Automatic annotation (TrEMBL):
Cell compartment(s), UniProt: Cell membrane
InterPro entries according to UniProt: ANF_lig-bd_rcpt, GPCR_3, GPCR_3_C, GPCR_3_Ca_sens_rcpt-rel, GPCR_3_CS, Peripla_BP_I
Signal peptide region: 1-20
Membrane topology: Multi-pass membrane protein
CC annotations in GO: plasma membrane
Lineage, highest ranks first: Eukaryota, Metazoa, Chordata, Craniata, Vertebrata
Entry protein name: Olfactory receptor C family, h1
Transmembrane segments: 456-478, 490-511, 523-547, 568-586, 598-618, 630-650, 662-686
Domain G-protein coupled receptors family 3 profile: 453-700
GO MF, one example: G protein-coupled receptor activity
Keywords noted in UniProt: Cell membrane, G-protein coupled receptor, Glycoprotein, Membrane, Receptor, Signal, Transducer, Transmembrane, Transmembrane helix
Length: 701
């Protein structure tokens, strides 16, 4: 019916991307790992890799067809075999469903990863190579990504290095930190540690040690073992544990390494330790026997949530070599469970009949009371089925699944009905169109010069700057008159310059943000208003000094000139220091550091408050010299504008936030300009007869 054969891979290893053991070559007892152990054809094929054989011996030379070094595999891992059968159970449930993938058959190919890196890789390549051959003959289908149901290594959460990785099991990042808190909770501040020498153990233990140090827990030693280590090396690790003073042992071990460590611990009679374990072995049923009770009784750890899978036990009890007489792994499973052999009877060996009953056996395969990892496998198969069901409903004859994996919980896909054959997530800067067939750019919104609001604000900004320049020309023309001299011409020109900057800085807020406008925006705003407030504060201080001084008149101008220059410089430099401390403003076209932004406003507000207080205290100066009154009035306007600005700024959406900020800048700048300079320009241009020293000092009578 469909042109493509789909293959999706499970991954049953702890190691994830691990170091390759130098002596790992092949799993040859049951043939090449590229050949699946259990298969079923279907329109959609789901591949699985499980550590069905997990005990591995050292490599040895062989003349068997002069082929390779090889690992001898010992017994079958019944727990992993249950995982594989759980996958088959889920596939069969889906095939029997009338609503999920109707009229489409689901097949499987299950490989033996042997619990080792190279065989695992070869198993994956066996699946992908088969898929490539199918794709070449049928259509342009592409290789599919991998699903992980038992890979907990936190290193795999790196989206840059592993963009196609998802899982149905939590990352060890959380488990490691939880173990540190557990140890701290019981007051165990001096512990030992042992880990698997692979990415699972090394990364998990590294996270634990970091978290433990933050909790005040010290690690006496941290040893690593591998299932391929020599017995002497494992014995050395046990000796380190025995000789250590820590009585609490953190065992971040895969089940294979845990089995090896326990066997050596039994040999050396290692007892008296409080074991704290990782999820891989803490609920393993074969460790709850009397054999290990003297060592592991009282062990603590975190487990994966268990679940019940209806019908699974009945399905498992039906497994029998008669289902596929030619399948060697089914025969080996049967021989392992019942301790018999299908080969010719040897002395003292029981002959397998095939009629033995699994109902009479209680072992890790038939025990479904603690379904944890099995449930992860079950959920992952159904996640794939639902994803494929949705994708096939796109109505295309050629379908490609770009699914990247399964998360901690049940996997949910964001699909687009993408009349498109490919279902993809749109980038953050895009969203799907109405038909959900393409990713279209989102509308970029900013306050531009071309729109009415932006144009008006820009016009007012230029108008204010032009007025300020015009007043500067008027003051320069009348710079030798008593009014300009009494207003402190040096500070007046500097104030006019700063007001020009205040008007012009609002232009940097208009237009599409660029790197330079973002750098200049709040920096220019803060610096120009700090300079403006510094000038006004210096003018106010100078007025107070001029009228309160008791020294000879000649010394007052010299002292006030030095004071005003120092105060303007120091107050402005302080604002620049605030910007230097918040360099994030240079990098982002937003508030940058919110603390820095509000610190800028707060500093400007502080300067305005000082100006207001000093000007208010100077209200009793001679009536005709009303500079202090003008400053007081200008500060009232300035403070009113910026107090109103705060709630308006916080509540304004999108580009209106920028418009509110520009409005506040222009309103406060016009308020300062008209309050301080309009009365002076009126006297200079309309009432020149008042521009006398006598009138300035209130000595008309």
């Amino acid at each position: 019916m469909y042109d493509c054969t789909f293959r999706v891979l499970f991954w049953g290893l702890f190691m994830g991307v691990c170091r390759a053991e130098e002596n790992t070559v092949l799993c040859e007892m049951l043939g090449s790992p590229e050949v699946p152990l259990l298969t079923k054809k279907g329109d959609i094929t789901i591949g699985g890799a499980f550590s069905i054989h997990s005990q591995i011996s050292k490599p040895s030379f062989t003349l068997h067809f002069l082929k390779h070094f090889f690992f001898t595999l010992f017994r079958i891992n019944l727990r992993e075999f249950r995982f594989a059968q759980t996958m088959i159970f889920a596939v069969e449930e889906i095939n029997n469903s009338s609503t999920l993938l109707p009229n489409i058959s689901v097949g499987y190919k299950i490989f033996d990863s042997c619990g080792s890196t190279l065989p695992s890789t070869r198993a994956v390549m066996g699946l992908l190579n088969g898929q490539e051959r199918t794709a070449e003959k049928t259509s342009n289908c592409k290789s599919l990504p991998t699903y992980f149901h038992f890979a907990t290594c936190a290193c795999l959460s790196n989206r840059k290095d592993y963009p196609s990785f998802f899982r149905t099991i939590p990352s060890d990042y959380y488990q490691s930190r939880a173990l540190a808190k557990l140890v701290k909770y019981f007051g165990w501040t001096w512990v030992g540690a042992v880990r698997s020498d692979n990415d699972y153990g090394n990364n998990g233990m590294a996270t634990f040690i970091t978290a433990a140090s933050q909790e005040g827990v010290c690690v006496e030693y941290s040893e690593a073992i591998s299932r391929t280590d020599s017995s002497e090396e494992v014995a050395r690790v046990i000796e380190v544990i025995r000789s250590g003073s820590a009585r609490v042992l953190i065992a971040f071990l895969a089940q294979g390494e845990m089995d090896i460590l326990l066997e050596e611990a039994l040999k050396q009679n290692l007892t008296g330790l409080q074991w704290v374990g990782s999820e891989s072995w803490i609920t393993a049923s074969h460790l709850t026997t009397k054999r290990y009770s003297g060592i592991l009784t009282g062990s603590l750890g975190f487990t994966i949530k268990k679940a019940k899978i209806a019908g699974l036990r009945e399905f498992l009890l039906q497994v029998n070599p008669s289902q596929d007489p030619q399948n060697s792994v089914l025969r080996e499973f049967w021989e392992t469970v019942f301790g018999c052999s299908f080969q010719s009877r040897l002395p003292g060996q029981i002959q397998c009949s095939g009629s033995e009953k699994l109902e009479d056996i209680n072992n890790p395969f038939t025990d479904v009371s603690q379904l944890r990892i099995s449930n992860n496998v079950y959920k992952a198969v159904y996640a794939i089925a639902h994803a494929m069901h949705n994708l096939l409903n796109c109505g295309q004859s050629e379908v490609f699944i770009s699914v990247l994996g399964v998360s901690k919980y049940f996997f949910m896909f964001d699909t687009f009905y993408s009349d498109s054959a490919v279902c993809l997530l749109c980038p953050l800067e895009c969203w799907s169109d109405e038909d959900r067939s393409h990713c279209v750019p989102k509308v970029i919104e900013f306050l531009s010069f071309g729109e009415t609001m932006g144009g008006l604000l820009a016009a007012f900004s230029l108008f204010g700057a032009s007025l300020t320049l015009a007043v500067s020309c008027v003051f320069f023309r009348f710079r030798h008159t008593p009014l300009v001299k009494a207003s402190n011409s040096e500070l007046s020109f500097l104030l006019l310059f700063s007001l020009t900057l205040c008007f012009l800085c609002s232009l940097t807020f208009i237009g599409q943000p660029t790197e330079w406008s973002c750098m200049l925006r709040h920096t220019a705003f803060g610096a120009s208003f700090a300079l403006c407030m510094s000038c006004i504060l210096a003018k106010t201080i100078t007025v107070v000094i001029a009228f309160k001084a008791t020294r000879p008149a000649k010394t007052v101008p010299q002292c006030s000139a030095a004071l005003q220059r120092t105060s303007v410089l120091s107050f402005t430099l302080l604002q620049l220091l605030i910007f230097h401390a918040t360099e994030k403003i240079i990098l982002e076209c937003n508030l940058g550091s919110p603390l820095g932004f509000w610190a800028v406003l707060g500093y400007i507000g502080l300067l305005s408050l000082l100006c207001f207080i000093l000007a208010f205290l100077s209200r009793k100066l001679p009536d005709n010299f009303n500079e202090a009154k003008f400053i007081t009035f200008s500060m009232l306007i300035f403070c009113a504008v910026w107090v109103t600005f705060i709630p308006a700024y916080v509540s304004s959406p999108g580009k209106f936030t920028v418009a509110v900020e520009i409005f506040a800048i222009l309103a406060s700048s016009f308020g300062l300009f008209f309050s301080i300079f309009a009365p002076k320009c009126y006297i200079l241009l309309v009432k020149p007869e008042r521009n006398t020293k006598r009138h300035m000092m209130g000595r008309n009578h």
